[in-house]
Specification:
alpha+beta; four-stranded antiparallel sheet
Length: 144
């Protein structure tokens, strides 16, 4: 996954794998809630349904992985939502913008919630645990 700023994206503490209780059909019908709460008392709620996205999730996977793009370590596909913030924040017709300290929570009953606080990328911890670190860690524990 590539983002243009450190700490500009989040995956969360767990990744949901497909099994007999959760499948691509569940992804296609997932209902997502979004909440932004600001230190200034601002609250914005939104809702989105994956059933209304313009392309099927498997089509997006096919475009992300194949003859032109290979990811031997795997990849994370972020499909986005249909939610576009239109609520004014500071004054009428002023639109919406995040502020430092905003807490953004995306949730779904089957997947749980992912909450992050808006910060400058220079204030976030650097990502310094790479694939080589993972392999050494697994080897030390005899898991390779």
């Amino acid at each position: 996954m590539t983002k243009d700023n450190n700490a500009a994206s989040s995956v969360g503490p767990a990744i949901r794998l497909f099994d007999e209780t959760y499948s691509i059909a569940d992804v296609r019908k997932a209902e997502l809630d979004l909440r932004v709460t600001g230190e200034d008392g601002f609250v914005m709620d939104g809702h989105s349904t994956m059933a209304e996205i313009s392309r099927d999730p498997l089509d997006l996977v096919g475009q992300a992985y194949g003859a032109h793009h290979q990811y031997p370590d795997g990849f994370m596909l972020m499909m986005g939502t249909l939610f576009a913030p239109t609520q004014d924040r500071d004054h009428p017709r002023g639109g919406f913008t995040h502020k430092m300290g905003d807490v953004v929570t995306i949730s779904n009953p089957e997947l749980g919630a992912l909450a992050n606080t808006v910060r400058l990328s220079t204030e976030c911890p650097p990502w310094d645990f790479a694939a080589s670190h993972l392999m050494r860690n697994l080897a030390r524990r005899g898991l390779l």
